[in-house]
Each structure stands twice: as C-alpha cells, then as structure tokens.
Amino acid sequence: MVNYDNAKDLLTWEFDFALSTYYEIETEAIEHLLPKQLNPIEVAPGIALMSLTALNFPPGALGHLPEFQELIFGLIVTPDLSRGVPKFAMYIVSLSSTNREHLEHCVQHYRLPVHGQFTGVSLQHDPHVVEYEDADGPILSMRNIHPNPAYGEGERYFQAFVMDNDRLYVADVVMKGSLFEHQQTGDAGKLWPHPFYNGVDVEAAEPVAFMQMLNEPGTMGKQLYPRPEKFR
Amino acid sequence: MSPTKKDLPPYTDYTFDMFIKSAGKDHAEITQFNEWRRQVLGADMYTFQIPHLGAQRPEVSVQRVSGDRLDLISLSSYNYLGYSYHPEVLAAAKEALDLYGLGATGSPVLNGTFRIHEVLEDKLIEFFGMPGYGVSLFSSGYGANIGVVSAYAHKGDVVVLDRLSHASLVDGAILSQATVKLFKHNDAEHLDRVLSRLDHKNLRILVCTEGVYSADGDTGHVKDIVRVSKKYGATVLVDEAHSLLIAGENGRGVSEEQGVLDEVDMIIATFSKSFGGVGGCLFAREELTNYVNWYARSRMFSCALDPAVTGGLIKALELAGGPDGKVKRERIKANADYLRSLLQGEVDIGNSHSWIIPVIFGDEHLYIPLSDYLQREGVDASLMSFPAVPKNQSRIRLFVTSEHTKAQLERGAEVILKAAEHFGFLLEN
Ligand SMILES: Cc1ncc(COP(=O)(O)O)c(C=O)c1O
To answer: What global pTM score does this model have?
Structure first.
C-alpha cells in the first residue's frame, strides 16, 4: 500500500489503545485553521470533519519511554492522491500527551503542533472510554458508541499534514492492527471549551459524531510514521 | 465458506469517495480512478454501466464487458408501473415524434415549448385536482430540484435538508448559496430544534423532504414535517420522485396519503420513475411556477423536454389516473409485500414499507464481488455503499414493480438468499 523504501527515519509506534472520533462541524468554525494548500472534506454543504484520536502507548513503545497517553486534534482534508490513495488525510492542529520527552520528540522529529502536557487522563480499554484534562481544565470525554464492535486485522494508510515555520509538511502514516470502524449514531461524549482546540468554539459548534475507529482491547497495534517531508 | 477480507482483492478496499478530489495541480484522482477501474475490469468484475439490450422489463438481457450475454431478473429499475414499454405509451410517443420531431431544440421560455408540453401541464393539474396550481416542466428530475431550490432560495436564506436528502436537493442547496442546515432523518422534533434556533421571523426558510427515501425504502414523515415547518413560517418542498402515481389513493403521492397535499408548497415529480420516461416538474401555486419557469437556471438554460417523451408521459399519466393505475398501485404493493415475505427473517431488510426493499449486507468490501455474483447468478440489482449509506450498512436495493410475476420475484429472492449464504449475510436464526 505504502512504499517506505525511501521514507526518512521511519519509526514504529506500538499502541494498545486507540479511539478516534470524527465529528461533524460547520466548515465556518474551522476554516481559519487550514493552510491555503488544503481544503476540508465536506460531508454535507458547509459541514466539515474534525477528528480527535486518543492513543495509549505501553512502556517501551519507543525506546525507553514509560507508558503514556496522547491526544491528537486534526481536520480531515483533501488528500494528495499522487502519493497513493489513503483512507483519509488529516491536517494536525494540536497534540498533547502525558510525557514531556515524547512531546519534545514530536516537535523535533515530526514538527507536530504540541499544545502541552496533560495533568489528568483516565482511560478505560473495554469499553473504550477516555477523559483528558490539563492545567486549563477538562478537554474531552470520549467513548465508543458501538455496542458490539466486529474487529478485523487491517491496515489504514493516512496522510498527516503539519505546518511548521510557515511550511507545509506531509507524512504517509500506516496504522496496523485489529481495528473496527463504524458510523453508529449516538452520544460519543463531550468536548469542553479549551485552548487545545486552537480557537474552535467546540461548544457552540455542537460537534456530532460522524464515524469512529477503535482497536481491539487486549491487542497491540502499530503506527508506522516516517519523518514528514516538505509538501510542494 | 464466505470470503473474508483477506481473500478480497485490493480494489475492494476503495470506497467511491476516495477519488473525488486530490490536493494539487496534477489531477492524481483521475489517474488513480482509472487505475482502480482497470483493475476491476481486468478481473472481469466490472458490473457498472452494463449495457441493457432491451426495455426495462422484469426480465432483461445485458452484455458483460467480456461479451457474455446474461438473462436476468430485473430488480434494479424504477420503472415501477411498467409504463416505459407500455404499448399505448409507446404509440403516443411515436405519434408525438412524427408530429414534433426528435428534440425540442430550444429553451422552454423562448422557442422550445410545444403544444404537447402544455397538454402535459394541464393533465398534471387535472391529475392533482387542484385549480390555481401550475406546473413547471424540466428535462430531468435532477434539473427540477437544482433549478427550483436555487430559484427559490438565495444567499442569506436557509435551506433545511433531511440528512438523507437526494443529491439533487443537496446540489440545489449548494447552488443557491443559501445557508444549509440538516435535520436528522425524518425527525420532526429535531427539525423543530433546528428551526427554533434560526431567526425564523425574518429569514426565508425552505424545508425539503421526500415521499419515499430510496436508500431505505421508508416513507417521509411529511405530515409532521409540514406541521413543524408551518409553525415557523417555513416553505415546504416534497420530492415525490419515488412515490408519485403509486402512494395515495389516487396516486398523488405520500403528501396525499398523509392528507397534506394542499399544505405542501412545492411538489417535485420525476418522470423517470413511475412514469417510465424522463424529465421532472414542479407542481405548486401558479404564481410560483410562473416565476420558476423563468428563474430556474436549469430550465431557462437547457433545452425543453423531449416531445416524444412528453407524448408518452401524457399517456402514462392518463393510464395512471384511471383504472389501470388503480390496478397497478394495488399490484406493486402486493408484489413488494410478497418479496418482503420471501426475504424477511432470512436477511436484514431494514425498515422498508414501500416498493424499494434494501437487503443490508454490511461490509463495503463486498460491494464489487457481490454485484458480480448477483449478475452472474441471474439478478440485475443496484447496490449502495459508503458514503451513500453509513459504514457497515452497504445494501442491495431491490426495486419492485407492478409488472413482476410471483415466479420472477421468487427467482430473484432465491438468488439473493443464495448470495447471502455465499457472502455470509444470512441472519442467524
Ligand atoms: C429522490 C430523487 N429526486 C430526484 C431524482 C432525480 O431524478 P431524475 O433521475 O429524473 O433526474 C432522483 C433520482 O434518482 C431521486 O431519487
């Protein structure tokens, strides 16, 4: 699917928890965050998608790092199909985790827009439920909506765009594992107004869950993530 | 053994939204789409755009890309009442063809309107039995929706759509440049909340719903939607594409069935379905249709409805409004009930109460192999998957007509159930 022969500094991150929710949000509420080269994917006129992905990395996921948790806020955008056909493309708006060393690595290796360090995370593997907060207060609570996930081994290729020093970068990322994706409707939790969302008024925007992706509890998944390269 | 994801070739991994657009100048979506198409063709699994060799009857012949000719039970055409090949309809079309020629060769507002178009308009008003109303004819149902919505709503107005609205209503809303709001499918309470948040005292609001929704075959909650919309002074459009000539005692659609025909502001009809032809129209108060005739751009800047088709449509409408229509309406409903009874309990047929019956097979990876299988086993069916329907809810959409015999429906059901066993979507009893 993705050819990593020429990938720069490809790292493999092993995770034992993943829960990602795409929320519908009015395009108007997020447009200002996107670089001019990227356009939001709209699922209905004026309705874009923002994603929140919570991951848990067990000890040793990368070198000597202890167990830590991560949260990524992204916007779903038009991919660059000349690189291959991904499941989706995401422009990463902000990222936090519980581990300072990990955050430094994110900045140096991946040019990721690090927001800060969490002060409190609660994470339940089965059923999937997470809550994150930092010094500015609660950020989100998120849970799986689907009552009986049917997991299957799979690979998901996605393009991760980031902005660094006014330049756009992209990485071809592959997520592997026993995964499940669904569009069950229901209550996926709550997003609290917080600087993590970079000015997106998540309360006024009333995000509605559009899709969720999760990994099978008790199994390990892998994220293959090379160093991003300049995008045009 | 049913195939698992591992056995499936890579081209099954793509959903149709993946080639819509690519960032950058090089049109990589065109290259990637063609690569995908080549792979499916190469595997002789390409069932799309398959040429049909005759009319859309309950039994059809098609020609595969390989050249093989297949004889199939058709459960995929929305020729609901069989008028596309009815001898009297064809005779009327031929007569009009001889009189007016092949095409209208002009915009309807300028020189493209023929006497026969006016006859169709009059017959439609008569059919609805509503004096003071008018008809605005379009050369497609798609054109009717985009034209009407964008002629009525503009920047600064609001178009409120059911989440499952047909693409033509969505596109009309985009074209109008109005603000678009969505309400949960068929949920009048949610619509109420959406409308209550708008400045409804000052804004022009158009609420759109449909008579029968073609993804699930469920009926629009038109009565409740009209009641809520009126509370906020909103205008209501009902697209009766899949219900006109069928639903309601006189075939005037779901709006008639639910007793709100005179409260609906705009009725959209398509002539491509139960009429068996092509085209569409707006049925509304004459003042409005007069205006739409001029200001719907898909009408003003497009050639008038084909005259031969128009002749056929007049005959189809005449038949549907008389005893023939009554018999066919009863028969299509009985046929749909019969097909449901053959499938119920064996496969997931959702919540259909109409002549459209979904058979939900779930996994979108099965779309191409299942489509191919059904064709080779003898059924012409149309499938739908993500993003047209939610993930894991891919479905075979079965269209029942008044013209199917019991034996044809039985043969169709047999193939569907065989496929369900092969692909593992039989319900566990
Ligand atoms: C609900 C609805 N509206 C409008 C249309 C467009 O009609 P036409 O095919 O006549 O252009 C369709 C066609 O499938 C439809 O299902």
So the answer is: 0.93
